[in-house]
Amino acid sequence: MRKRIVAFGEVMMRLQVPGHALLSQANTLQYSFSGTGVNVASAMTKLGHDGFLVTKLPDNPLGDSAVVSLQHLGIERDFISRGGKYLGMYFLENGFGQRASRVTYSNRLESSFNTASLSDYDLGLIAEKADIIHFCGITLAMADNVRESMKVLARKVKEKGGTVCFDCNYRPSLWEGGYAAAKPHYEEMLSLADIVMMNEKDAMYILGMKSKSPHRDGQLRELVPEVAKKYNIRSIAGTHRSINSDTTHTLRGYLYKGQTFHFSDNLSFSVYDRIGSGDAYTSGILHGELTGFSPEKTVLFAAVSGMLACTVVGDTPLATEMEILSAMEGKMEDIMR
Amino acid sequence: MRKRIVAFGEVMMRLQVPGHALLSQANTLQYSFSGTGVNVASAMTKLGHDGFLVTKLPDNPLGDSAVVSLQHLGIERDFISRGGKYLGMYFLENGFGQRASRVTYSNRLESSFNTASLSDYDLGLIAEKADIIHFCGITLAMADNVRESMKVLARKVKEKGGTVCFDCNYRPSLWEGGYAAAKPHYEEMLSLADIVMMNEKDAMYILGMKSKSPHRDGQLRELVPEVAKKYNIRSIAGTHRSINSDTTHTLRGYLYKGQTFHFSDNLSFSVYDRIGSGDAYTSGILHGELTGFSPEKTVLFAAVSGMLACTVVGDTPLATEMEILSAMEGKMEDIMR
Amino acid sequence: MRKRIVAFGEVMMRLQVPGHALLSQANTLQYSFSGTGVNVASAMTKLGHDGFLVTKLPDNPLGDSAVVSLQHLGIERDFISRGGKYLGMYFLENGFGQRASRVTYSNRLESSFNTASLSDYDLGLIAEKADIIHFCGITLAMADNVRESMKVLARKVKEKGGTVCFDCNYRPSLWEGGYAAAKPHYEEMLSLADIVMMNEKDAMYILGMKSKSPHRDGQLRELVPEVAKKYNIRSIAGTHRSINSDTTHTLRGYLYKGQTFHFSDNLSFSVYDRIGSGDAYTSGILHGELTGFSPEKTVLFAAVSGMLACTVVGDTPLATEMEILSAMEGKMEDIMR
Amino acid sequence: MRKRIVAFGEVMMRLQVPGHALLSQANTLQYSFSGTGVNVASAMTKLGHDGFLVTKLPDNPLGDSAVVSLQHLGIERDFISRGGKYLGMYFLENGFGQRASRVTYSNRLESSFNTASLSDYDLGLIAEKADIIHFCGITLAMADNVRESMKVLARKVKEKGGTVCFDCNYRPSLWEGGYAAAKPHYEEMLSLADIVMMNEKDAMYILGMKSKSPHRDGQLRELVPEVAKKYNIRSIAGTHRSINSDTTHTLRGYLYKGQTFHFSDNLSFSVYDRIGSGDAYTSGILHGELTGFSPEKTVLFAAVSGMLACTVVGDTPLATEMEILSAMEGKMEDIMR
Amino acid sequence: MRKRIVAFGEVMMRLQVPGHALLSQANTLQYSFSGTGVNVASAMTKLGHDGFLVTKLPDNPLGDSAVVSLQHLGIERDFISRGGKYLGMYFLENGFGQRASRVTYSNRLESSFNTASLSDYDLGLIAEKADIIHFCGITLAMADNVRESMKVLARKVKEKGGTVCFDCNYRPSLWEGGYAAAKPHYEEMLSLADIVMMNEKDAMYILGMKSKSPHRDGQLRELVPEVAKKYNIRSIAGTHRSINSDTTHTLRGYLYKGQTFHFSDNLSFSVYDRIGSGDAYTSGILHGELTGFSPEKTVLFAAVSGMLACTVVGDTPLATEMEILSAMEGKMEDIMR
Amino acid sequence: MRKRIVAFGEVMMRLQVPGHALLSQANTLQYSFSGTGVNVASAMTKLGHDGFLVTKLPDNPLGDSAVVSLQHLGIERDFISRGGKYLGMYFLENGFGQRASRVTYSNRLESSFNTASLSDYDLGLIAEKADIIHFCGITLAMADNVRESMKVLARKVKEKGGTVCFDCNYRPSLWEGGYAAAKPHYEEMLSLADIVMMNEKDAMYILGMKSKSPHRDGQLRELVPEVAKKYNIRSIAGTHRSINSDTTHTLRGYLYKGQTFHFSDNLSFSVYDRIGSGDAYTSGILHGELTGFSPEKTVLFAAVSGMLACTVVGDTPLATEMEILSAMEGKMEDIMR
């Protein structure tokens, strides 16, 4: 049942101020390498599959360090291309309470990944190998050459019988032309996708759809089926998340499949590191689909996976199938000896 | 009023991943040395007595480091025997929220302590000196030679007029034969003991007693007097502890003495490091008994001692009598200048 | 609109045990340099003004390190005098839950600042430059020479048309003679001050005033106007703060000005580092007064400034005007990208 | 030219006191995972080949952490078996000057690797894949089951046309019966090996051979050809190493092949971390043999590889072919920009 | 005698792997902010002058952190412009012995400084204030807009009677067109400069001059007077540096002034952090010239300043005049109490 | 052969900047507790004796931390008095190469120890127990009350048959009146002492003796016998130490006893932490005298003890008798497994 999951995406260096200090107060940084593709490929490895990443990294010590970090996460290095000059980076200052976290990017568009072209990747081999290929809206925002690689790759994998997964993940700051600029690219990816991660906001803002309902639940129930129908998508999934006044988070997942909605319980939990939770949810959906879980089980598995990702340090989900299944039974233990 | 408290038990090296990372994410460990005997002997020292530990440690740098750590805690080194080859160790990964903490043991049965025999200890001198000797159910689970040392030592101390304290502390993973294997050894220790730490679960599961009550309070009130009578025990004490939904803990202590139950208030508090709280409670009971506190005062003193142990780093209780008495008055200060 | 704010006060070295360990458990300390004057001068710099500190520091590596730290905070070094032999220090052990934080002072009275005399400072130049000068009750408690410098300086600044701000900040442990010894000095400073930081307790305990009300709100409304009238003070401001059972704090600021009380909302928030919150509040009041905010805006600005100071590491407030104004609109963001 | 190198050996957890402190002075440890097999497989990966490790690791968080660490080093996880209970560990205290480093082992014989049997490994697949298989004398010292696995595996690889490499690496403390007990096992491995790492001491002490020469150079030149002839070994290589009075080390490598000795220059250099230098030398020999370097080039390549391994933190060699070739040209740069 | 020294240059963020690990081995970085201009302005502050920096920094948390760091070093913030998007960065891996240090740059040309134009700086005010202005060849290599700012600024300062200092500091990797591209810009700066830092290599390679001497001493003595004459330069200074086999460095400074050469002693010393030593030498020359030291004293003062900069952590020289003068007397103390 | 060694002296808190940074560059400190008395008592414990310290410590968290640290070192707490207000402290910045280390003291004269009087110590009990009592010239410099305690204690121990050891250890900065003020107190201590640590400089400078020899060896051989005779001292010992150009140190010990000089070899070695080496030498002499070593063996034992103390972190010697004896045989091992 072991499958090959290939993610396409950029590796970013995350440089984080330890604890809750500001950059102007500290003098050390913790670094790691992540990105949506990294997170999904790595999470699928922990869930028992073989995770691959299609990306390009500079041929210098920063690129070497990124490769070693991907190996550390269990990601196969077969589809990693080397060359170009730079690696995308961002600095993270953790917030506290009423003070938000802050992210500061370095110049990302000159990175090896964002200046790579189709010929940097062995498309034939990738399409041959991939059981699932995963793309994300962040990558789609980058540059024309990147978008071209995404679309060609999606098409090739589909031709070879692989499954295409697309996570909408719209980041306003990345699209100079706003929703209007994004829409045609999103529509093209949605037409190519078998599994889509999104919620009602993506439908309304990116695709410009209208809802009669004033509430997000109603909007979700109205718009997601329309999207599935229009773009011919097998499964659509996503979450509603809210922050409670006592700083815990509440998460509820949904999966729309076979013209039916399936919802997880409302999960409430303390959060150690919020980043990467969405990718853990995606991985849970993919694993459920690959493994033949019932939709009910899949959506709860994914939500619990998203919850557990909030209890570990770093962006990358680390839970195994056994750990997620055991947490689904809801037993909260103090110490496991 | 200064007394000599002797604890018999193993010193374990605790190797803890800093913060909330997993072993597979980190590359440093914090180490310390602890164990029930260490905790009790050290806590009694902080309460103004002289704490001793009867144990055996390897004659190598790990053993040296353990000895220095015991000295650091104020424990007298007179009864520490050196020799054998290994030190018991465990690795601790701190959980967070829905993710439990994990403990991984190294091979403990080959440790210097667990392979020691009677002749490693100067039984005569120990019995001569001890006002109280403390044993625990973890040690009882180890091996025949360890059990023999416990029983002979308890008997010798009793003969010389010392007080024997036994903490039931049943750990399921340590008894291959389960409750059946444990019962005869527990019964022998209970017959030798003057002060016993336990609650209704020990009576029901280890000793196989039955209760008519479906609730733990009723079970406690029914079974503890039976145990006291059957094994002729002067004082029995213990706690009920629960984890609240907001992650605080609630603790209530009891002391059965003179055929009467005494209960502390229900104490609710935030927890920094849960390990060692039970040993702090035990130390509070012993101190109350040694100092001639009223049973009401003793049980509250012990419960507050258990609570304060949850506010400090590490297994070992650090509060002084003055600090506990002051916390019993319930004043929560922001900063003490 | 950029003004020159001059604070008069001691620089203390803060030596803090990392995390929640006790001094007897750890072997490293984090150090920084702070004090009410440092905090106010630095906070005013962040708010767009020029902050100065009138102080004296030893001419040795500790003094050098303090100067560098003041520079780091953006404080101008023009009024820092060098000489004398020592720097005041205190050790801080962070509490947790039911265990209070502990502060241990080294011998402070021999410090360069507390043994300095009038001639160590260029009074003429300071008075010439200061738009506002800030004093505090902690400094007033130190020694006769220090008190003399305070009073002469306040008088000189007033003569030159500057504004005098006095923060009552009574610390019981610093006054050997108690309230009786403190009263005359407080009265003299109050007569010199244009802006005063205090609440009803200062009126009752230091000034010996009586209130008919049994509640602090009633006491405040009764006594503050009396103080303003008696000592001819333009603006009086302060806070009521309480610690909630879930360990969050609640803060409410008031500003009495033009014979009217203005109150902020009750703000409730999690606390990362409580020290320095009062100085952030003071800075907010001073900024509002200097900038011509309405009293309603000033008091909320100050309270939010006090709240944000609790979300950063260290004593010194770090928020800019823009950050405070944005937090006043109450938007709690997760991550700012 | 990319080859598959398979090493057979134990993974040990190295727990190192930071800096130069003793275990009894510190409270943190740095941990990593290493072993001769790990070092060789990893080094070959850096040199452009695919490195595999045949080993067994416990199925617990320690084993998980070891696997992740092997992945980090680029080692393929295909031949890693999981099960058993323990992982071998050692504690390292760095010496300084006249004070030697100290190594303290935990009980190693109960480790998953040392209790594994033939059936834990997929011998057929391993023999199919391996271009070279590497064994070492440390492993040979462990236990009968381990020795059996070594010999069977060596034979299978040989049958399939693979090359067998054996590193004598005799550790006196590991053989209870001394040289006499070791000799038959060494002789069996030598008969199976194509490439052997050893020097004159192994010939004299383990194999009991006599030399007429009083000096190690003469002994080497006399005995190594005898060994090659007697056990029918294609290539024999090794080093002479000495510590100079200014704490630098001097290293000279030899390679005996085609009935001729080839020597590297005497290399003198500063040492940062000495452990792993021998394995780097071995890897250099294997790479030279696989790549078809001349013997002269191979022996210098190996010696420089051993030298560079002394300039990096940790046991595992990290130099690439390009870095070694560039260092062979002897250019010492200050900073590479 | 306090003067105003203004340096023009970029602030770079230095991200350094702690100790001697590689980027691929570590997970933390130490960061600081430096650059030739930063180093010179800061060093002059330590020597008792007022140091300013003309630069441009992004208006984000990285820029804030850089500003705070400049304040920390005592540099006045009056001439720091804010805006643009990025900050130049480089990663540093410390070498050891035969392994060279490695520097990896991020994309520098898009930095706020390198995209700034003349209008970003208040040229009039700068020229008004500067007693000395310092430029460097690294900045000259950047971009046309940067070069224009340099030349206009140099001219303005000269017109107002200030002294222009130019440090040749040729970095081959920064000039795409090599020496030919650099020469006209260097010639223009040399014509504007009163004090120049260079040695014979700059004369031969950049300016294309020929020497009859085969040795660097002869070349220096021949070419430097020619340069001084041709470009009408008041003082030219520089160093010869060599690395000894025992890893100590030897440094000898020269100052050509009044048509005469002055040389320091050959200083040999251990090196802790080599970066910044050249800027410390420059600062020593500037201080000597400003203070009216004899040329003999100036050149020794500068050389000792360069030596002491090698004994402290970080790029920025930290020695005071007193410390340098005391080291010139050559007393090597063990501990200063 | 186990003896009781009692040292009289102050416990100082050492606050050290990690690595080689200056106080103005760092933000953390490492702290420990030391002093000549601490070092000697602790070293004697490692050598198999029982070490006691007569001192006074404040009854606050700093004092608690000091006590725990003494326990850690194995020192018995029986003679530690608690009370007073302060603990002496000093800050240490490590030098490098040509840059000396710097020590900055806090105000020491107000410390609990330096304000203690005779009645703070149980003189009778101390005199009863001490086999040897150790005093030092640093303590003698402090204050009249301290000097009185020293002299009375020395006399009492002598009366009870104990041995008095006095280490001259003259620190110029501590004696306001210079040698003249010190002389009478030194003479009184010398008359009371059985074993004295000193060299020719003490004789010439403190005692004002003249030598005909221009060299220190000649001066030593001439003056030490005179001192022994004049003050009736059984054994006098000390060292000559020099720093070599390659930063190694050379140490040679002497012992004058039975009217004969005994010298150790010249030992040359690398130094990790120089502080405490003299106290290690003293401890070696005391151990030799107590154990009945020949003078030749004693002086070499002491010198090697002093050398080994330079190879460990911290002030306090840590070598055992076995380790010193083994180092005396001069075997330099790489790694001890």
TrEMBL record, chains A, B, C, D, E, F:
UniProtKB keywords: Kinase, Transferase
Classification via Pfam families: PfkB
Gene Ontology MF term list: kinase activity
Every Carbohydrate kinase PfkB domain range: 3-316
Organism domain of life: Bacteria
CDD domains to which the protein is assigned, alphabetical: KdgK
Family that this chain belongs to: Belongs to the carbohydrate kinase PfkB family.
Protein name listed in UniProt: 2-dehydro-3-deoxygluconokinase
Species of the source: Peribacillus simplex
Lineage: Bacteria, Bacillati, Bacillota, Bacilli, Bacillales
